[in-house]
Amino acid sequence: MAADELIIAALLVPAAGAALIALCDRAPNLREGVTLVSSVLLLLCVVSLLPDVLDGARPAITLFEVLPGLSIAFDVEPLGMLFALIASGLWIVNSLYSIGYMRANREHAQTRFYVCFALALAATMGVAMAGNMFTLFLFYEMLTLITYPLVTHHGTDEARRGGRVYLALLLGTSIMFLLPAIVFTWFIAGTTDFTPGGILGGKLSAAALGGLLALYMFGIGKAALMPFHRWLPAAMVAPTPVSALLHAVAVVKAGVFSVVKVIVYVFGIDTLASAGVTDWLVGVAGFTIVAASVVALNSDNLKRRLAYSTVSQLSYVVLAAAVLVPLSMVGAVLHIAAHALGKITLFFAAGAIYTAAHKTEVSQLDGIGRRMPWTMGAFAIGALSMIGLPPAAGFISKWYMLSGAMAGAHWIAVAVIAGSTLLNAGYFLPVVYRAFFRAPDAGQSAHGEAPLPMVIALTATAIGTVLLFFVPDVPLALTRQMTGK
C-alpha cells in the first residue's frame, strides 16, 4: 500500500471500526472482537509508515483546498509519527482493559462507549497527521466533541456537571484564543502549513510574536496550563478506561503535541529564541507543575491525585519546549511517550483496584499489594516513571529536560524540574509504601486481582515503560530528526 493510502487508511480504519461496532450491538463478543481487530489494523497502518519517516521521507496527501492557503492536508513528520505510534499502540491495550473493566463493573451503554472510543482514535490520527494548523484544529475539535459522551458516560448529575466543565473549557479556549491565533497566522503568513523553521520569521515584532504565542498556548486547552486546567480533574467522573484515554492515549497528548508542533513548525525555535518571548511561558508552566503537584500531594482520592499529576506532567512538556534548547526539546517529545505509558499504567491500576476491591482513596490501600501484587507492582513502575527514576522511561525524558535547561542556563526551569521531582516522590511513594509495607486493616474483605484482561493490559504497559528506558531508539531517532540534533 502506498504511503498516501496508508494515511487515509489510518484515518478510516477506526471510523469503519466504529460503524461495525455499532452494528454488533446485540453481540458483545463480536463487538469487542471488532474493537480489537480495528485497533490492531490501525497499528499496522501506522507502523507501515515508520520506515519511510525514519529514512527522512515525509508522506503527505492534500484532500482539497478550502481557501487559498487553507487546505485539508496530511503530512507525517517525525513528531506526528511518534504520536500516532503511541495512540494506536495504546488503543490495543486499552481495548483489552476495557473489555475486562466494562464487563466486571456491568457498565451500561457499552456499545456507545466502544463506538465513541474508536471515533476518538480516528480524530487522534487526524491530529497526529495534520499537515497544517487548520486541519489540526478541525480534528482537535472533533476529539473534544467525540469524547464528551465518554466523560458523561454514567449519566449522573455529577457526570453531567463534569461534562459541562469539560466542554466549556476546551471549546471556550479553542474559540476565544486558538481560532483567532490561527486566523491571524493565516492572514500574516498566507498559510498555516507546518514548516521546519516556522512560517512567521521576520513577519512580526517581538511583542506581536509574544502575544500570538500566548493565544496559542492558552488556546490549546488540552495542554491544561493553569488556569485552564480544571476540565481535567472534572472529567474524572468518567469510567477508568476513559480516564486512560483522556490522560494517556489521546486528549492531553493532543494538547502537548499541538504545543510542540506550534513552537517548532509555526513559530520556529530560532525565531522565538531571537525574539526572547518565552520566559513568561517557562514561568506559567513552572507554576502549573508545582501547584498541581501540591494539590496532588494533598489529595486522598486516587484518581484525583493522578489527575493533578497529569496536569503537572503535561507542563513538563510545555516547560521543556519553551526553553528552546534542542536537548530540552528532545526531552519534551520523549516525555510525551514516557508519560503516556506510565500514566496509562497508573490509571489501569486505579481501575483494577476499584474493580477488585471497590477502593478509591489512598488511605484505604494499606496492604493491598499483598492481595494485588501484579496491579501494585505495575503501579510502582508507573510511579517511578512519573518521578523520573530508573529503570523507567520518565528518567530519560527528565534527563534530557534537565540537560537542556542547564545547557541553556535556564536555572528557573532546572529548579522547577528538580523541586517538582521531590513533590512527585512525595505523592507517589506513600501509595507504594502503603500497598506493600503496611498490614491490611482488620476486617478488610478478601479479594484478589481484577479480571485477567485488565491485569494483562496493565502488566503490558508497565513492561513497556521499562522497555522504553532500555530501548528508546525509535522515539530518539524521530525526535532527533525533528530537532536536527
Question: How would you describe this structure in keywords?
Answer:
single chain, 485 residues, mainly alpha, two-stranded antiparallel sheet, 20 helices, 75% helix
Order of helices and strands: HHEEHHHHHHHHHHHHHHHHHH
The best one-word shape is: globular
User: What is the number of helices?
Assistant: 20
Average pLDDT value?
90
Report on the structure:
This protein is mainly α and 485 residues long. The chain has a domain at 278-485. The protein contains 20 helices and 2 strands. It has helices spanning 3-23, 28-54, 78-104, 110-129, 133-151, 157-189, 206-219, 231-234, 240-249, 251-267, 269-275, 279-297, 302-323, 326-357, 368-371, 373-387, 394-407, 411-437, 452-470, 473-483, and strands at residues 60-67, 70-75. A two-stranded antiparallel sheet has the order 1-2. β1 and β2 (70-75) form a beta hairpin. α13 packs antiparallel against α18. It is globular.
